[in-house]
C-alpha cells in the first residue's frame, strides 16, 4: 500500500486537510482534487490551492458549476440563509454531491494512476447527508469498480471519529497547528478559528476545546 498513489478529495477545510496528512503518511504519492461548484466563498478554492502548493502536492481542480443549476442551496447561493432545523436536512445540503464528487474523483484517479481515493466524510457528526454514510461509501466503491472495471479503494479515515478525535488525528500526525491555522471551515469564509458563530465553526471549535481539554487532563 505504501508505494501506491492516492487521490484526496480536498476542500481546504479541517477534515480534508487532516485526510491529506493521513494520506501522506499512508501512501507513496499523494494528489488532491478540489471541486469548484460556485461555493459561497471563492476563498475556499484559494485556501485549498495554497495548502496544496505549500505541501508540494499535485493539485487538480474540477469545474462542477453545474451543481449550482441543480441545487439552489445555501452553500452555492448567497441569497439563501444557512439554517438547521431539528429533524430536517440542513439548508447547506446539495443532494447527491458526494455521489457526483466520488464518481469524478474515480475517473481522475484512473487517469493519474491513483489506486486509492480518500474522502473526509464522517458518519459521527452526521448532519443528515445520506451520502456521507459508511453504507453509501461501500456501495459507491463497488459501483465505481464495476463502472471502471478496476480495483480502486475508497478510504474514509474520519468515518467514525467525532470532531475532537479528528483534531487528535491531526495532532498525532504532528499537524494540529497547521490544520488549525491554515484551513477554512467557516460558512462565513473566515479561515483558521473562523467566525465562531456558524454551525461549522461551532462544531470545529467545540471539538478542538474538547480535545485540548482531554490532552491537558492526560498530561496531568
Ligand atoms: Zn463560521
UniProtKB/TrEMBL annotation:
Co-factor requirement: Zn(2+)
Origin organism lineage: Bacteria, Bacillati, Bacillota, Bacilli, Bacillales
Assembly information from the UniProt record: Homodimer.
Protein name (record): 7-cyano-7-deazaguanine synthase
Catalytic activity: 7-carboxy-7-carbaguanine + NH4(+) + 2 ATP = 7-cyano-7-carbaguanine + 2 AMP + 2 diphosphate + 2 H(+)
Binding site for ATP: 10-20
InterPro entries recorded: QueC, Rossmann-like_a/b/a_fold
Originating gene: queC
Any one GO BP annotation for this protein: tRNA queuosine(34) biosynthetic process
Function: Catalyzes the ATP-dependent conversion of 7-carboxy-7-deazaguanine (CDG) to 7-cyano-7-deazaguanine (preQ(0)).
